[in-house]
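**Protein record**
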Amino acid sequence: MHAMRLNAPHTALQWTVLPDPAPGPGQIRVKVGACGVCRTDLHVVDADLPFPGHPLTPGHEIVGRIDALGANVTDLHIGQRVGIPWLGHTCGHCHYCDTGRENLCDHPLFTGYTRDGGYATMAVADAHFAFPLPDGTDDVTMAPLLCAGLIGWRSLVIAGKDAQSIGLYGFGAAAHIIAQVALWQGRRVYAFTRPGDTKTQDFARDLGATWAGGSDEAPPEQLDAAIIFAPVGALVPAALKAVHKAGRVVCAGIHMSEIPAFSYDLLWEERQLVSVANLTRQDGIDFLELAPRVGVRTKTTPYPLRDANRALDDLRHGRFEGAAVLVP
């Protein structure tokens, strides 16, 4: 098999030939059809997340078909199309797993970080964390749903079902997906982009956003909730300022730059500041069942697998709308 490997932090990924992996008990092997390029992959490559201490294959928005089964896998079959997300394994017996919060497991494994991921022609995954996918959709357009979509969905749920006006800070892969869900639910979407990024603002309005502007601007009305997808700590006080009393601000990323000091007045009046961590299998089941009914359309820019470094750099500098996807 071939893979784009990260051998050390702050270095370019290397095209590498590896032995074909064999699935262990309870695991499957997938022939990768497409793998999305997520901002979390940037955090791994740039060492915003601690380097695990060994070479790894990034990528956790994997769509492919099963070509080998490990022992004791009975619910999936050879040739089946599946999606593999960020959360790749949980212990099943810690306090959080026992109380239905496996996304907070004390002993997790993460696809493309603490276990090899999908920037490759093959990937091995736990069968319990592989979501069956319907045929009839393109692998490239489906891949961003496996993280951008799932984290967007969990963030929207945490924002609250009563939030009718929602601000989305950082209108990239996750925001452009979940904006479509929010609009389908009858909510009003306000898109915040990098200041001066009129192209992305036009993109947001084309999707149906009520308003789009720079993150340095105030929306035309106070919001019920805001979701921050951009890893920029300075957006936290900005979002708190944008929501009304009892409004909720959800931080959706796995990493964020330092949050600057802000006046307690921004948090007072029962405003809430919460974070999202990973996802549960139920999140995947719920969202992947809902997405076809919504008619979610992902805007993607495909890259050959060998061009993973270019895709990551384009993501780093905001050179495309929507999501980048690697194709083996």
